[in-house]
Amino acid sequence: MEKFLRPVYERYTKDVNTLGILYVESVRPHSPLTENFDLILLVIIEEADNPWCAAHYEKGGETIEVNIVTKTQLTSWIDTSGYRRAVEWIINGNIIFERNGYVKQLKAQLQNFPRKKRNLRKTIDFGKLLKSFYEAKELYKLGEHKDAYSKIMNALHYLARLTVLEKGFYPEVMVWNQVKNIDIEVYKLFEEFMLSEEELDKKIELMLLAVDFMINNRATSGALHLLEIMETKDEWSYAELKKHPDTKAYALDLSVIVSYLAENNYLDVIRKVSNGDNLFELTYKVRNDSPS
User: Fold this and answer.
1) Closest Cα to residue 19, out of 79, 77, 75, 83?
2) Averaged in consecutive runs of 10 residues, what is the pLDDT profile of the chain (292 residues)?
3) Is the dihedral of CA 162, 211, 139, 148 positive or negative?
4) Tell me, what's the pLDDT at 292?
5) Is the dihedral of CA 53, 56, 57, 62 positive or negative?
6) 35, 43, 39: which is closest to 10 by C-alpha?
7) What is d(CA 100, CA 96) in angstroms, rounded to the nearest whole number?
8) Res 269: pLDDT
9) pLDDT tens string 101-138
10) Which residues lie below 8 Å from residue 116, measured CB to CB, with a gap of 6+?
11) Can you give the pLDDT at residue 120?
């Protein structure tokens, strides 16, 4: 395979800016792992004006996608799930070239999955889980059952990802295969929703209750990244939390996370007099007796 790909990657091996090159072969036609291509070639470089560029090729009837990505961009994808297939490419990819053991070290880091990075990823998916759940709940109340069904499917997807992260693994594209092997309770919840013969409205009603229970059981773990940030200071305004560099990865879902934590007694809400009559700014502090 390396000989087959050599005309595509050879020029990158001669560039001192190149840190590593991997390839991933499709195991079946139209595989999501390889973006429906026969082969993926991942070239990791030190730096570039464009942090990610890609090109498509064909050779001997085989289609190839080449991704050239900077180390910084790749790290961002890994830490925030910005492009989750990249993680699978690194874990499952075959090394063609590396400089100073860079790719082997990267693979080892992914296997270890440091606690700080794992907590960040959990809070990112916890925020998305909450938002999907609340949207499903509202749509159900409005009688929009088909849209509520769709949002519950989204919520279950993020619940699955959160479950995998809690076990110390990176979620893969085929995440339910992972969940089946590590948390049968969550997997059976998904199966029940898919296979139940209940009327749609009843199915959604029951699943909302089940997902709500699952969220409550995972709140401490799911929000840990944010809670640890908030424990570094006695009190926070929402504006301060929003501009904190470590919440950037889940900034779009930060409001729903904070609201959930306040409503469920993880945070104390403090009202402070602001400008104008009867106008108060809300600030937040972690409760010492918050649920465990």
Assistant:
1) 75
2) 85 95 88 88 96 94 95 92 86 94 93 90 97 98 97 97 93 88 95 93 96 96 97 96 96 97 96 79 89 65
3) positive
4) 57
5) positive
6) 43
7) 13
8) 96
9) 999 999 998 888 889 999 999 999 999 999 999 999 99
10) none
11) 96
Q: How many residues does the chain have?
A: 292
> Kind of pairing, strands 62-70 and 39-45?
parallel
Contacts of 28 (CB under 8 A, 6+ apart): none
Beta bridge partners of 65: 40, 56
Q: What residue has token string 């990249």?
A: 86
Q: Angle of helix 115-141 relative to helix 145-166, nearest 10 degrees?
A: 160
pTM of the model: 0.86
Task: Kindly state the tokens that stand for 255.
Answer: 């409001």
- Residue 71 CB: number of other CB atoms within 10 A? 17
Lookup result for tokens 């270890």: 112
Alpha-carbon span 170 to 9, nearest angstrom: 28
